[in-house]
Amino acid sequence: MRPVNLFDYEKLAQERLEPAIWDFYHGGSDDEVTLRECRRAFERIRLRPRVLVDVSTIEMRTTVLGTPVSMPILIAPTAAHGLAHAHGEVATVRAAGQSETLMIVSTTAALGIAEVAAAASGPLWFQLYTHHSLEITGKLVRQAEELGYRAIALTVDIPRLGNRERDLYNKFVLEERTPLPNYPSQDITALERHMIDTWETVDWLRATTKLPILLKGILTAEDALLAIEHKVAGIIVSNHGGRQLDGAIPSIEALPEVVEAVKGRCEVYVDGGIRRGTDILKALALGARAVLIGRPIIWGLAVDGQQGVLRVLEILRNELEMAMALAGRPNLASIDPSLLKL
Ligand SMILES: Cc1cc2nc3c(=O)[nH]c(=O)nc-3n(C[C@H](O)[C@H](O)[C@H](O)COP(=O)(O)O)c2cc1C
């Protein structure tokens, strides 16, 4: 089967991956309510297309924190690409470069941040989990800065690892399966340092780096306002792909209150359950600057390495292009809340 859409890649990836690895990538926490709702929430949103608009050319180039990208579709940070394909994050980052978009590299990557940067032809952000020692964390942040990463996305929704029962049944322990070179000496306590992050950690990070800071994992107006007080450059509205607090609102439903609270004072991004061009159109209409794609990137990687990731990105680009045309919105500026039936 030649995959036509992202769900085809999902099926093919599941066939190819060892079941425990599939479960690790696929799974959410507890009863996976949030994981399922993330999809349903998109399906509930209705569009109000306009007609007789000249859509002969569709323009979707944009900038993210000042960096140009060819489309408002970025690669979310996800762990251990080496379990999906031998080339791991190198394959992913090459595909990102080919698509002229940006990859957010995870602290939990299977390759070191230098190795990923060396393979990159496009822009990178670094997703940070702080380590047990802030000194070590500071060194990692400075290394990212020196390597040319353009922003730090601190993930804030993981004070403890969510209850991922698929992994418990499978006795799947990530650090037993893959090297995690961005953690010093595979020290398991290193994986736990981020469990004590607070708003002081954000201030520490701001004092440590000149790079713009994004907070990933905000779902409320209250926290969005605090993030503004702590001078972040961006917020990523996310529930960690349904892997942390089960029952947490779908991120697309949290997006409007965050956008409303922020009032343009920082850029707002969203991820979780985005599988179609129309999902992206809906997120943009609700005020997202761009969206992040998590699991589908891994599906592409598992099915066909760099080519697979590239295809996943290009399918999304084509679908967004089509959705914009059919909605009578030929450029990003024309995508606004009037596109939605609320
Ligand atoms: C297998 C897997 C690993 C992840 N690893 C990380 C990570 O290391 N850091 C992080 O901030 N988010 C991580 N996430 C969350 C993603 O960045 C993103 O929020 C989520 O996957 C988006 O939802 P989607 O998979 O439905 O697109 C991970 C998600 C998955 C599925």
TrEMBL record:
One Gene Ontology cellular component: cytoplasm
Q: Which PANTHER family match?
A: 2-HYDROXYACID OXIDASE 2, S -2-HYDROXY-ACID OXIDASE-RELATED
Which keywords does the record carry?
Flavoprotein, FMN, Oxidoreductase
Q: Which PROSITE patterns match?
A: FMN_HYDROXY_ACID_DH_1, FMN_HYDROXY_ACID_DH_2
Q: Listed GO molecular functions?
A: FMN binding; oxidoreductase activity
Q: What is this protein called?
A: Alpha-hydroxy-acid oxidizing protein
Q: Where does glyoxylate bind?
A: Y129, R164, H240, R243
Specify which residues bind FMN according to the UniProt entry for this protein. Answer: 77-79, 106, 127, 155, 216, 238, 271-275, 294-295
**What range(s) does the FMN hydroxy acid dehydrogenase domain occupy?**
1-342
User: What is the similarity comment for this entry?
Assistant: Belongs to the FMN-dependent alpha-hydroxy acid dehydrogenase family.
Question: Per the UniProt entry, what species is this protein from, by scientific name?
Answer: Ktedonosporobacter rubrisoli
User: Residues in the active site?
Assistant: H240 (proton acceptor)
Q: Which Gene3D superfamilies match?
A: Aldolase class I (3.20.20.70)
- In Pfam terms, one family for this protein is FMN_dh
Q: Which cofactor names does the annotation list?
A: FMN
Source taxon at top rank: Bacteria
